[in-house]
Amino acid sequence: MNSNLFDQLGLNIDIAYVFIGLIILLIILFILIVIQNNKIKRIVEQTSKFMKGRDAASLEDEIVALFEDNRIIKKATEENQKDINDLYNRLASCFQKIGIIKYDAFNQMGGQLSYSIALLDEDNNGFLLNSIKIFFNSLFPISFNILVLSLINKYILQFSTSSINENAIFSLVDFGVIIK
Question: What is the 8-class DSSP label of residue 108?
Fold first, then answer.
């Protein structure tokens, strides 16, 4: 089956091959249309699920509400950060380093009943409380405590006491009982 049209154009092609090619092209196009329709159905289903029970105005209100919630959360976060910084500033002046040592104030006279306690803040300022237990073994045995309070400024002790007490206080600092 030769076509006069193809013969006039100088093409020696059988018209049956052209029809077979067009039928194959139609089948391919039909398959592509089916695939595209399925994709459009999925998009329509997702959109209808998203828009279910809502119109464009209510959806806009919800988006605006979400942005407002975001601003509120951001503001609360900034306030929390300010509060945390305020707490850190307050803690700098609180006692953070504590040291305690027990010692025998008078060699072999009563055991380790005397003690020194140091309380320091972040800048190593604070005080040292020294309690000395004293025994008198005279006719009537008497015991009592002497409390000495000394100020500490940047690890510098500001006090005047006996050498025994100084040794106990310096051993408290020297042996690392006061934790940095």
Answer: T
pLDDT confidence tier of residue 177, bands split at 50, 70 and 90: very low
By CB atoms closer than 10 A (0-12, 13-18, 19+), residue 36 is exposed
- Rounded distance, CA 177 to CA 172, Å? 6
Helix residue spans in 52-162 (DSSP H): 56-92
CB neighbour class for 165 (10 Å; exposed up to 12, middle 13-18, buried from 19): buried
How many other C-beta atoms can be found within 10 angstroms of the C-beta atom of residue 155?
14
Domain boundaries, the chain: 1-52, 55-90, 97-174
- C-alpha to C-alpha distances, 27 to 4, 22, 141, nearest whole angstrom: 27, 9, 120
Give the model confidence (pLDDT) of 90-121 as tens digits. 888 888 878 788 877 767 666 677 788 888 88
